[in-house]
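Q: Mind making up any chain with C-alpha cells?
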Amino acid sequence: MTAKKASFPAKPTAKTQDQWVQGAAASAPAKKGQGTAPTEAMKRFTIDVPTSLHARIKVACAKRGTKMADEIRILLEKHFSA
C-alpha cells in the first residue's frame, strides 16, 4: 500500500487574515435588514447580561423581526448621542 500525502498552504499570518476578512466584508452582499454597508469601521465588544434579560431582548427582537445587535446599537446611540 502506498502512502498518500496531502499538501496544505502555509499558515496565514495575522496580516493576510486581516486582508482576507476585509476583502470578504467589502465584497459580501448586504444581509436582509441590514440596508447599506456602514460608512464607519465597526468594533466588537462583549458584555455579560443576566439570562432573563437576554431572553427578553431576544423575544422582543424576534417579534419585531430585528436583530439583537441592531436594537442594542440603537439604544447605545441614543444613550451616548454625540
Observations:
- Residues 50-82 form one domain.
